[in-house]
Amino acid sequence: MSEKRGRMIDPRCVVVALDFSDAGAVMELASGLDPDNCRLKVGKELYTHRGPALVEKLIADGFDVFLDLKFHDIPNTVAGACAAAADLGVWMVNVHALGGRRMMEAARAAVAQKAHQPLLIAVTILTSMSDSDLHEIGLSGSAEENVIRLAKLAEQSGLDGVVCSPLEVTALGRECREGFQFITPGIRPAGAQVNDQKRITTPTDALKSGADYLVIGRPITAADDPLAALQAINAEIRAAFPITA
Ligand code: C5P
Fold first, then answer.
1. How many CB atoms lie within 10 A of CB 60?
2. Residue from 46, 132, 135, 38 nearest 91 by CA
C-alpha cells in the first residue's frame, strides 16, 4: 500500500470491467490476468447471460469480484439480493441511492449479518443523465448537486462508498467522511482511445483526486495484450505513488 492524502492506495485498485456476454471470452481474458494485480467487475449483461456460476468460477480462480447489478427495489427485496451477493462471496456489490434511506439501511443490515461482508456501494446519478433528464423525472438542481446529496444519504445510511465520476471525487471528498470509498469509471491512460467516454481522467489523476478504485474496461479488455496493458497502468500508478511499506 502507498499513501495518498492520508489514505492508502490499494495495489489492486484497478477493477477490470468484464463487459462481455460470452463466458469463453471472459475466462480467456481472466486466465491471462493476475488476481494479485487487479480485481474484476461483472455487470448486468454478463450476469444475465451467465449468472452466479461464472462469478463463483472467477472467485474460485482467486479474483475479487465487484457485482455491478445496481439493485433498486423495495427494501426487503434489495436486502435479500445483497444477502445473496454476500453468500456468493463477492468483494463489492452496489445499489441505487435513489432507492432511498430505508432501502439502503435494509441492505446494510442484511450484509451485516453475513460472515462474508462485501463492500456495499451506492450509485448516485447515472452519468448518462443530463440536467434536463433529471428535471424531466422531477429532480431539481444540477447533476452534481444531486450526486452530492445522494452520496451523503448513502453515507448516513451506512454504506461504504459511491460510484462516481473522477471529476466529482474532489467535491465528494470534502463532503463525505474519511474512509468513504470512491469508485470511478471514465478512466483512460494517457494516449488510450477514448471510445464512447466523454469526460475522462488518467488513472494517476483520478487517484490524486481521491478515487480509491478505478473501473477500467476497454483500455485493458480490448488491448492486444490485456496483461501488458494492466501492467502498464499499474506501473504508472506505482510511479506516482511509490509503495513505501
Ligand atoms: O470500457 P470502459 O473503460 O469505458 O468501461 C467502463 C465501465 O464502467 C463499463 O462497465 C461501464 O458500464 C462502467 N461505467 C461507466 N460510466 C459510469 C458508470 C459505469 O463507464 N458512469
1. 9
2. 38
pLDDT at 130: 87
Q: Is the CB of 195 under 6 A from ligand 1?
A: yes
- Return the ∠ at Cα 178 (arms to 126 and 97), rounded to 5°: 25
Q: What domain range is 22 assigned to? A: 2-240
Tell how far the Cα of 71 is from the centroid of ligand 1, in angstroms: 17
- CATH code for the domain in which residue 203 is found: 3.20.20.70
User: For residue 217, how far is its CA from the centre of ligand 1 (angstroms)?
Assistant: 7
Question: What average pLDDT score do residues 185-201 get?
Answer: 87
Q: Is residue 154 part of a domain?
A: yes
Q: Is residue 44 part of a domain?
A: yes
229 part of a folded domain: yes
User: Of all atoms in ligand 1, which is nearest to the CA of residue 17?
Assistant: 10
Distance CA 187, CA 205 (A): 9
d(CA 119, CA 98): 18
Ligand 1 midpoint to CA 209 (Å): 18
Helix (H) or strand (E) holding 129: none
- Structural domain tally of the chain? 1
For ligand 1, mutation pick of 41, 146, 167, 215 (most atoms within 8 Å of CB): 215
Q: Look up cell 491471462; give the residue.
A: 32
**Is 127's C-beta closer than 6 angstroms to any atom of ligand 1?**
yes
- Tell whether 245 is covered by a domain: no
> Average pLDDT, stretch 213-227?
96
Per residue in 102-128, pLDDT (tens digit) is 999 999 999 999 999 999 999 999 988
Q: Is the pLDDT assigned to residue 8 strictly greater than 80?
A: no
